[in-house]
Amino acid sequence: MMPNMSMAGSVHSHPTPNTNPSGADLALFARIGDHHIIVGAPYNKRSWKCYDRQGKSRVLDVLDIEFDKDEIEDDFKWII
Ligand SMILES: [Zn+2]
């Protein structure tokens, strides 16, 4: 998360192919952001799902964007 952005959500993994949110996941989703990604085994391009703050599955477009290396380094200076 870049320092000049508001909290968009969260990303975490599950050790199995089950990407359904747990009770603890739903409690977290309700507190921050509105885009929460859960990645399940085998951790490939199709083994993840995105949820809203109520835990309902939602579509999340995946974009292929190249970042300017200098711009990224400038943003990380604020984190360090
Ligand atoms: Zn979880």
Care to describe what's here?
The chain contains 2 helices and 4 strands, in the order βαβββα. Strands 1-2-3-4 form a 4-stranded mixed sheet, with no helix packed on it. The chain starts with 8 loop residues before the first strand and ends with a helix. The protein is 25% helix and 20% strand. It has 80 residues and is of the alpha+beta class. The longest helix has 11 residues. The chain has one domain: Cytidine Deaminase, domain 2 (3-Layer(aba) Sandwich), CATH 3.40.140.10. Zinc ion (ZN) binds next to loops.
Summarize the structure.
By secondary structure, the chain is α+β, with helices and mostly antiparallel strands.
List the helices and strands and how they pair.
Elements: E1 9-13, H1 23-31, E2 35-39, E3 48-51, E4 57-58, H2 69-79
Parallel strand pairs: 1-2
Antiparallel strand pairs: 2-3, 3-4
This protein binds zinc ion (ZN).
